[in-house]
Each structure stands twice: as C-alpha cells, then as structure tokens.
Amino acid sequence: xxxxxxxxxxxxxxxxxxxxxxxxxxxxxxxxxxxxxxxxxxxxxxxxxxxxxxxxxxxxxxxxxxxxxxxxxxxxxxxxxxxxxxxxxxxxxxxxxxxxxxxxxxxxxxxxxxxxxxxxxxxxxxxxxxxxxxxxxxxxxxxxxxxxxxxxxxxxxxxxxxxxxxxxxxxxxxxxxxxx
Length: 180
Known about the structure:
Layout: E1 2-5, E2 8-11, H1 17-23, H2 32-39, H3 49-68, E3 98-100, E4 105-113, H4 117-122, H5 126-139, E5 143-151, H6 153-160, E6 172-179
Parallel strand pairs: 4-5
Antiparallel strand pairs: 1-2, 3-4, 5-6
Helix pairs in contact: 1-5
C-alpha cells in the first residue's frame, strides 16, 4: 500500500470504480500505468469541469425521477463523505452516485450527448457497467441500476457554459437493471 522512494513514502490511493475499470483493461482512454501512477499521486488526469457539471445535473434528474416513482434514493455530499462511501475499506473505495438502501441497490448515472443515444440503445459500455458492478459488490448488493441521461445540444451548451439550463424537455433516458 506504500511505495518507498529514497526514504520517502508514497501512499497509494484506493482503487475506485474508475481505477478498477482501468486496471482491468476495460478503459480505452486510460492506460494501466497512468492509473497506477495516478493512484500514487505521480500523475494527474483531470476531467473537464463541464462534464462534471453535466454529470451532477444527470444525477439530480435521476434522483428526482426515482423519488417521483416512490423510491428513496440517497445522494451523498461528495465533500462530507470525502469522496468515498467505503471509509472502512482500506484498499477499495469511491463515490456512489445514488443509493437505494431500502432496496439494497444503487444507481450508477452516466451523462451523454444526444448524439450517442441511438448507439446506446443497443450498445452496453462495459467500462460503465463495471463501475456500477464494483460499487454494488462493495456494498454486497445483488443488483444495481444503470441510468444514462442524454442531453440535446442546446441544453448541453448551456451546461458547458456554466449556465442553468433553460429547458430539460428534450432529454432522453435509458435505464437498465443488472445483477452482480
């Protein structure tokens, strides 16, 4: 769990859903070596904040949808849980998008451009599903949900510009349930 470099210790970060996928060679964008260096704090790969904003909005949309249909999704404040829902787990961790504790399940949410909608109707992104499966496994849940929210270009442009979307009428959603 530590690497020693000339009397200096580098503490490795936990394996999260994102790093797990990369270490399993399921991520076409990140190499295993970059992931390991990132876990040691020697390499940093930042996600553009515009995608984080779009993802946060997608999570809120999914949370509201589940509430509307009688579920009780829990959204964790990232900072208050220190970006880790598994503080008692020494090597594995990460942040669950939404959890359904009453149903012993969780929801992994992904946001996409509308241009990907037709593709995702028949395509299953193994990387994204592995992330959900990883967190469900850590929670000892038998199943989990994947929710994909697709944003039209005008709405996405507003989000990317840091503006509040003027309409959410043209969104599309794909929802699937998976067994662990």
